[in-house]
Each structure stands twice: as structure tokens, then as C-alpha cells.
Design brief:
Helix 1 crosses helix 7 (about 140-150). The chain has about 625 residues and is of the alpha/beta class. It has a seven-stranded parallel sheet. Strands 2-4-7-6-5 form a five-stranded mixed sheet, with helices on both faces. Among the domains are: about 5-195, Orthogonal Bundle (DNA polymerase, domain 1); about 380-620, Alpha-Beta Barrel (TIM Barrel). The chain has helices at about 40-60, 65-75, 85-90, 100-115, 120-125, 130-135, 140-150, 155-165, 175-190, 200-215, 225-230, 250-255, 290-300, 305-315, 345-350, 365-370, 400-410, 435-450, 480, 500-510, 535-545, 565-570, 590-600, 615-620, and strands at about 200, 220-225, 235, 240-245, 265, 270-275, 280-285, 320, 325, 385-390, 415-420, 460-470, 485-490, 520, 550-555, 575-580.
């Protein structure tokens, strides 16, 4: 739908932890179902409002108006229920939603009815198209982009690069040589075609909605997503859906009739391709039951994994393709005769003397060697998680108060959480100074007392803090305060453009601090929006291993930081991992499943993850102060 909402519509950044769904099975989440006739999703409307906010800010409109659109986008992005469903309920109103007044409610209705927003179209006619290209450069928001366009008449990314190399950008007020160098460094990131790929979290929501739609077709026996989505890649370029059916025509027609189908790209006897929400291409393949396992394995990939699997089959006189496992006759390249097997993936792998390999490990790395030794890891699952050790409340930049976050954690079956609001350096988030932090901890003490007075505490709330790693070194709260905390997350938010040795030194210093339990989102990247800062992760991992400091996989879909490579390296070095949501609302607690998926790609087992343990064991793993 993004294309129907304006060709330049940008997906908003994830400024808060958030989720539009609740976990189903290990990693699956059902998408909300809108009333028939409405094919505009919550994500479409959130992206539109975020885009409007960018353009209004570029134009210099009132800051309160800009903030209203940004707040509405954030609120809508996190809704589980579709806006179309809310509007269709006569007992409810769109204005009941947080941050939605009469004006924004009217615009939501316009988008739901028409897929268009006149205000956005007017702004896009008024503002040069180059603005949208320039805002893809990390560090260039609407105000800086306007300064570049007004001062230097920049009309393309190429022109911006020339201006930087000619040192003309540094002369603009508010820029300077460092900003100019950072723009040059980040231009490649802005030009990266992978930035057009969907976050796994967004692609999964689209796939879940389509799977539910196809599952309701009487001709569908089984339906699953394959491809990079099933392997859990951080971003997804297109969607592969596989259906087991004896009536392909009926299933194909069901896809064409899906309310989210924007265009039909290709139709055939067993494959149909469409353009769906966010302009993502979706390929649907229908196969018979006897070939379903072989097809699921084949279309899940990766290419490298499949090449090695087929080579192994040839060594055993077999041929594997999407139709099954066949005997390979001597002197022939093709598979003659009936299939040996192919109904399930397990059968396909068993045919070449291997156990079933989890999709997240199928990248053509060491999975075959592990499988041959029967040493594949028992990958961590969402059901293994007992606690969440990084979240925020409305005392700083969270959306909900302490009590609501606790209730949300109880509803998700957690036995402990850590409240880790920002320290005082993060002024934009109203970070806590000593006095406000100690007051919050007193509230947590009283809450824990109240919980323990009941029939056994359903949850324990840890007194925590997310302290900032300062540009000059050290932390933004003193050790005598941190010594009173149950849990300390240390994160770097400022000075991200410092040289590699300086950033690394900042990390190594705080890793030595006896009060720091975990390093939060260690590389600072935002997927599709901001590259990682330049830090020596090998040195960070080695220091964490030596001191017993944990490293975080931040489950926010825009972060997923550590990435799978660094998480695997940390595991190999003996560093324990904490998977945390960094939630800023109760719905943000649901992104834990994204962090679990990242951990599975890294080969992590429950024993590698700190917060799969009871709280007493977590405390036993922490540094001795």
C-alpha cells in the first residue's frame, strides 16, 4: 500500500520499542484483520503520518503540529487492532485512541476510504523530490536538509557528494568539517538498495495476514512462509508462500482476491506473483502433499545451503529439487523414476543422512558439520524466556507508567523485569538524575513489598537504570548510586562519530566497572537508517568475557543489536547474552520474539542467554561487586 499512499512515503523510524502483534507459537504473530473493503493497513497510515511530519518540519511548520503527527504515527504503529476495525465499531471512536484528535481521525478515515491523503499530496507537490533522497542520509533530518537545499541548491545525492568534497557544506551554519565528513561516509549507506527491504518484523506481519487469509480457503491443506522470512533475516526483500493443495486454481484465485493485493504480476498453473502491502512482491507456489517438504526446503534456502545439500545428495546417488528426492541414474543428470521421498523436510534431510536443520541456521556455514556430528544447537525459544531486563516507563521517554509495565510483563508470563529508565545525560528523554532515580527505586521497593504480601509474588521488579557512556569517558551517574541498583545497563547514545579507538576505549572502561551488568545495543546501528558506529567488537567481546559483563541482543526490530555474527562470536568467547525488548510501552514487550530470532540465527541455546534462568541464577552470574 505504500505506493498507493504516495510514491515517496517513508516508513517511520522505530523511536520506541513496539509491536503490532502477540507471539504465536515460537515466532509467528497473527496480523489484525480489517473489515472487508479496507486494504489500508495501520503501518501504511503510520508511515503516511510520519512522512507528513517530515515534510511539515522541512517547511518550518509549528513544532506542536509536527509532534502531533509523529506521536500519532507512533501510537498507530503499535496498535494490534486495525484502525478499520476500530472505525467499523459503532460503540467506539478513532478519537478514543491515544494521540488522535478530531483532525487526525478525519485524515485516518480519508486514508481508509481512498488510500490517499490530500495534505500529503499537496506537500509532495510543494517540496522538491530530492528532499526525500537527502533525508535517507543518516544524520540529515528535515531541518538540515532544508539548509543544504536553500544554501547550496543541492538537487541530488551526487550533488551533495560533490559539495562535500569541495568543502562547501562546512560553510553552512550548523554544519562544519565533522558533519561534512560524516555525510560523505554515510552517502553509501543512503544509496544501498538493501535499505528498501522490509524489516523482518514488518514482513512477518504482512505474511501472517496473508497466511491467515489463505488458510481460510477450503482448498488449502497447509500454508507456510519460506525464503528469507523463514530463515529470520533482519530484512526481507520479497515473500515466498508455499501452499499444499490439490486445487491450485482455487488457491491462486484466493490470493488474487486478497484485499491487500495491489497488482497481479504473474499467473500460472502453480505460481502466482502479486504486489502487496508496502509494494512487496509475494510469490505463491502450490505443490502437492507428496512434494511439500521438498518444496519447503528448496524455497526456504539459502542458496549456499541448498548447493551444499544437493552436492551431498549427488555423492549418494540422489538428486534433490523442489519436487522431491530422486534416484540419480548412472550417466544421467536428471532424476528418473518416482521420488524416493519429499513429504516433509525431515525426510529430505534424512535421505542424505542428516537430521533436520533449523531454518535459521541454513546459511551454508557450519550447519552441515554440526549436523554430521549430531551437534546442532537446541536453539533458544520464546518459551524459554523468564525475564526482560531493559525497558522504560513514563518517568523518562516511555509511554506508560511503572505499574502498567509490570502488569504487561505479568500478562506475558514473565517472572522478573528490570526497569531501566535513562540516566541524566539523555536530556531529550528526560533522563533521571540521582534524586529522581532514587525516588523511582523507592516506588519499586514499595511495589515489590505489595506484591510479596499477596499469595506469592507473580513477578519481581528489579531497580535498574540505563546509564549513558559519556563522550569523555565514564558514566552519567556516580558509582555510589549505581551500587544501590539491582541491574545496570550501560549504553552509548552520544559521540557516535568519534574515532574507533576512542569509542572502543569508552566501552572498555565501563566494562571494567563492577556495577555494570550489561552493555546495551553495543553497536548503535538502526537497520535501514543508521550504520553501526566504528567500534572494535573483538576487543569489546574479549573484555566482556574477562570481566563477566553481559552483552545485549536488543530485540527492537530496528536494532537487533548485537547482530547474529557478533552474538555468535560472543557465545564462542564464553560471553553470556541478555535478550531484552528495550520496550517503551506494554505492547513493546512483544518484540522479544524478534530478539529470540536473532539469537537463533547466532546458534544460541537457552543456556547462552542470561534471562532464561530463574532470578536467583541470574544474580549468581553477575559480577561480584
Amino acid at each position: 500500500m505504500a505506493g498507493r499512499l504516495g510514491s515517496n512515503t517513508r516508513r517511520p523510524p522505530c523511536r520506541r520499542g513496539g509491536s503490532d502483534s502477540t507471539a504465536r507459537a515460537v515466532l509467528r504473530a497473527p496480523a489484525p484483520t480489517a473489515p472487508e473493503g479496507s486494504d489500508v493497513t495501520n503501518a501504511d497510515i503510520a508511515a503516511t503520518f510520519e512522512h507528513v511530519a517530515d515534510l511539515l518540519e522541512y517547511r518550518g511548520d509549528n513544532a506542536f503540529r509536527v509532534r502531533a503527527y509523529r506521536n500519532a504515527a507512533r501510537s498507530i504503529e503499535g496498535l494490534v487492532e486495525s484502525l478499520a476495525t476500530v472505525r467499523a465499531d459503532d460503540a467506539r471512536s478513532l478519537t478514543d485512541l491515544e494521540g488522535i484528535g478530531d483532525d487526525l481521525a478525519s485524515k485516518i478515515e480519508t486514508l481508509l476510504d481512498t488510500g490517499r491523503l490530500p495534505l500529503l499530496e499537496s506537500l509532495e507537490r510543494e517540496i522538491p523530490a530530492v528532499v526525500f533522497d537527502l533525508m535517507r542520509v543518516p544524520g540529515l533530518g528535515p531541518k538540515k536538509v532544508k539548509a543544504l537545499v536553500d544554501a547550496l541548491a543541492i538537487d541530488s545525492l551526487a550533488a551533495l557528494e560533490v559539495a562535500c568534497r569541495e568543502e562547501r557544506v562546512r560553510g553552512i551554519k550548523g554544519f562544519g568539517p565533522k558533519t561534512e565528513a560524516a555525510i560523505l561516509e554515510n552517502l553509501a549507506f543512503a544509496r544501498d538498495p538493501d535499505r528498501s527491504r522490509l524489516l523482518w518484523h514488518d514482513a512477518d506481519a504482512i505474511a501472517a495476514g496473508l497466511i491467515d487469509w489463505l488458510a481460510a480457503c477450503p482448498a488449502t491443506l497447509r500454508v507456510e512462509a519460506a525464503g528469507s522470512l523463514r530463515r529470520g533475516l533482519e530484512t526481507v526483500g520479497d515473500l515466498d508462500i508455499l501452499v499444499d493443495s490439490r486445487d491450485p486454481a482455487a488457491v491462486m484465485q484466493r490470493l488474487v482476491d486478497w484485499p491487500e493485493t495491489a497488482d497481479v504480476l504473474l499467473t500460472g498453473d502453480t505460481k502466482t506473483s502479486i504486489r502487496g502491502p508496502r509494494d512487496v512482491q509475494i510469490d505463491l507456489r502450490v505443490v502437492p502433499t507428496e512434494s511439500y517438504g521438498a518444496a519447503l526446503q528448496y524455497f526456504t534456502g539459502s542458496k549456499e545451503h541448498n548447493i551444499r545439500l544437493r552436492s551431498r545428495a549427488r555423492d549418494r546417488g540422489l538428486s534433490i529439487n523442489e519436487y522431491g528426492v530422486f534416484p540419480l541414474a548412472e550417466g544421467e543428470a536428471g532424476p528418473p523414476g518416482p521420488a524416493v521421498t519429499g513429504r516433509t523436510e525431515a525426510e529430505v534431510y534424512a535421505a542424505v543422512a542428516l537430521p533436520w536443520i533449523p531454518p535459521e541456521l541454513r546459511e551454508g556455514k557450519d550447519e552441515f558439520a554440526l549436523a554430521e556430528r549430531h551437534a546442532l544447537p537446541q536453539l533458544v525459544t520464546l518459551a524459554d524466556m523468564r525475564g526482560d531486563l531493559h525497558m522504560h516507563t513514563s518517568d523518562t521517554d516511555g509511554e506508560e507508567p511503572l505499574v502498567d509495565m509490570v502488569h504487561g510483563a505479568v500478562a506475558r508470563g514473565l517472572s522478573y523485569i528490570a526497569i531501566t529508565d535513562h540516566g541524566q545525560r539523555v536530556t531529550m528523554a528526560r533522563g533521571l538524575d540521582r534524586h529522581r532515580l532514587l525516588a523511582q527505586w523507592e516506588k519499586i521497593d514499595r511495589l515489590n513489598e505489595s506484591l510479596s504480601s499477596e499469595a506469592g509474588p507473580p513477578i519481581v521488579v528489579l531497580k535498574g537504570i540505563e546509564v549513558d557512556i559519556l563522550e569523555k569517558g565514564g558514566l552519567d551517574l556516580p558509582d555510589d548510586v549505581l551500587a544501590r541498583a539491582d541491574w545496570v545497563v550501560a549504553s552509548l547514545h552520544y559521540g557516535q562519530s568519534q574515532p574507533r579507538d576512542r569509542i572502543t576505549a569508552r566501552f572498555l572502561e565501563v566494562i571494567e566497572n563492577p556495577h555494570v551488568a550489561v552493555i546495551g545495543h553495543p553497536t548503535g546501528r538502526l537497520i535501514n537508517r543508521r550504520p553501526a558506529y566504528d567500534v572494535d567488537m573483538e576487543a569489546v567481546i574479549a573484555a566482556a568475557a574477562r570481566t563477566g559483563t553481559f552483552l545485549e541482543i536488543n530485540a527492537n526490530p530496528w536494532r537487533l543489536d548485537l547482530d547474529d555474527r557478533h552474538a555468535a562470536a560472543a557465545r564462542a568467547a564464553g560471553v553470556k547474552i541478555v535478550i531484552s525488548t528495550d520496550a517503551h510501552s506494554t505492547r513493546g514487550l512483544d518484540v522479544m520474539r524478534c530478539g529470540i530470532l536473532q539469537a537463533r540465527r547466532a546458534g544460541l541455546e537457552a543456556a547462552d542467554v542470561v534471562n532464561t534462568r530463574p532470578l536467583a541464577e541470574v544474580r549468581g552470574l553477575m559480577k561480584t561487586r
